[in-house]
Amino acid sequence: MKKRHFLIFLGGLLATLLLTLRVSTLGGLTLDLRDSVTAQTSGGLLISAAASLQNVLEAIDPQAEQTVGAGVNYNFGSSGALQQQIEQGAPADVFISAASRQMDALQQKGLILTDTRRNLLTNHLVLIVPSNSSLNLTSFRQLTGDKVQKIAVGEPRSVPVGQYTEELFKNLGILAQVRSKLIYGNSVRNVLAAVESGNVDAGIVYTTDRLISTQVKQVATAPDELHSPIVYPIAVLKESKNPQAAKSYVEFLSSSPASAVFQRYGFGISE
Fold it and tell me: What InterPro entries does the record tag this protein with (predicted)?
């Protein structure tokens, strides 16, 4: 088979797979690969966004599509995993991270349009337990106690909530005492799901994740000075197939109507 025909065959096979497969990840986050094909070929947008943004971006979506004049599809996951996908050439028009680290990495590799980058949102770190928990926890320091056996946290190398949590434990001086109790999740929603299921005694998530669940209760809030500022940077990717629509999407998320929805879901607006 000639090389050209072979490449055409591979392209057709990939397109067929993309049109028929769904890829699922832990914690209830899914990416329908058919959507990425549609977004990249019909003038629509594909947004790679931190898992903690799923509910609010889906709520904003009708307004966003009307404003930018294009369909908008989403790929939700941990910021570190999304960063790696983008570095490996996965299609996307806009990236929204839950920490600066991942956006910094893409910027250093020349993968974003730097003039579109801005800090969009803020959040807070909270300690949660199952809603029927009998533990009388009121502070993070109590996680060192014998009654707490399992603590769900984000994986700190790729999940921003895990990065913030590790910084918190270090600054409280309790990391060594709790390390053996830590159960690592591949996204903040995975951490939330572990607490909801009752498979762990406690977990650390963002305020916004606690607000979407009736199966957990918040027992403490981390002082902001004990970890890096929680910010959500946003930027258009250099390889966007629809850069003008992508820039319009970024502008819309910074608008007053979008900010009102973000605040309703518990996010702070970055100054």
Answer: ModA, ModA/WtpA, YvgL-like_PBP2
